[in-house]
Amino acid sequence: MAEPQTVTPGWRSIGMCWEGEEIDLQGLNPWEHEWESQSERIVVAHPSYPSQRHDVDVWVIHGPDRVVRFAAGEMSNLAWAFFLPVYE
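Now predict its structure.
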């Protein structure tokens, strides 16, 4: 039996939402901005099922007065989870 993946340290769960549903990432709704890939993936625990591990991509979005770095992934059909670095 394979060992479970280790969660990438330094990230915290912000929550889950349906695709297109508003979620607050430091004052920005990611669905209203173009996501720029950071060519980086991290391993996270599913917010509702912490024993599950998922690989998600790291992105940035540009707001009028800030740049927000975040990770996001589709946990199941149209259900997205969002994560922010702990230092933000």
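The mean pLDDT is 94.
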